[in-house]
Specification:
About 20% of the residues lie in helices and about 35% in strands. The chain is α+β, with helices and mostly antiparallel strands and about 250 residues long.
């Protein structure tokens, strides 16, 4: 029996790198499978050198609910022993983005992951440790063996202030990035299949990514000509909200 776990990945900053060269650390436009598997492995309390075979075999998909804005940051560092300056590095982030990810697999493993994200051993972060999520990431279990189909049924998870900007659209079209088959020629190839997170020798294999789309209802839809309401304010970031939920069931 298979099932799926849905995750809401939202925060002030996110960074999901699939490739990096020297001092340039880029981000993909959506969460990577390796990044989400890393989040789940941390929630389970697995060490970086632990076997990833079961988690890597999960089927993965992600939906772009709020694309956010790409930012670039310059960072400096010094060698600890000599205090000599290291080269300035460029780090790229996604600001104010919201995604919904889903992983599907054997029911027992999915349920274990659900329990782990509700009470994680290591706190989750959105690609980098400097990027905590805003609120809980858990959206719950879904009775679906295909993560793409699970995402097609999810409500639009964008922020209220972002949905307010689309208030005259009864439905919105969202992009879903799923995994293609080995012989699928329609998708892109990304070195994002996790093999090992061991810091001494991180390894990632290639995987195929296929983009599809889905139309979802806009809960803030108002037909043109109706009485205008006050704009929805942008909420204050509250990373401690995640901690307050960890004592619950």
């Amino acid at each position: 029996m298979t099932s799926a776990l849905a995750l809401r990945l939202a925060g002030p900053l996110q960074s999901w790198g699939a490739s990096a060269r020297f001092t340039r650390r880029t981000t993909e436009t959506a969460p990577t499978k390796s990044g989400v598997i890393g989040l789940l492995a941390a929630a389970l309390g697995r060490d970086r050198g632990a076997d990833l075979t079961d988690l890597a075999a999960l089927r993965f998909a992600v939906r772009i609910d709020q694309p956010g804005t790409r930012l670039r940051d310059f960072q400096t560092a010094h060698h600890a022993d000599t205090d000599k300056a290291m080269p300035v590095s460029q780090r790229f982030y996604l600001a104010d983005a919201v995604f919904v990810a889903a992983v599907a697999g054997e029911d027992a493993l999915i349920r274990a992951l659900h329990a782990a994200v509700r009470s994680p051993v290591y706190l989750p972060y959105l690609g980098r440790r400097s990027c905590p999520p805003q609120g809980p990431v858990d959206l719950g279990l879904r009775d679906a063996g295909d993560p793409v189909e699970a995402l097609r049924a999810e409500e639009w998870q964008a922020s209220d202030w972002y949905r307010e900007q689309r208030r005259h659209d009864e439905t919105v079209t969202l992009t879903i990035l799923g995994e293609g088959t080995a012989g699928d020629r329609a998708g892109d190839t990304l070195r994002d299949q996790p093999v090992s997170f061991d810091p001494r020798h991180r390894r990632y294999a290639l995987r195929s990514v296929v983009a599809t789309s889905v139309d979802v209802p806009n809960p803030l839809f108002r037909a043109p000509g109706r009485i205008r309401h006050s704009p929805v304010p942008v909420p204050r970031h509250e990373p401690e909200a995640l901690l307050s939920r960890m004592d619950g069931p």
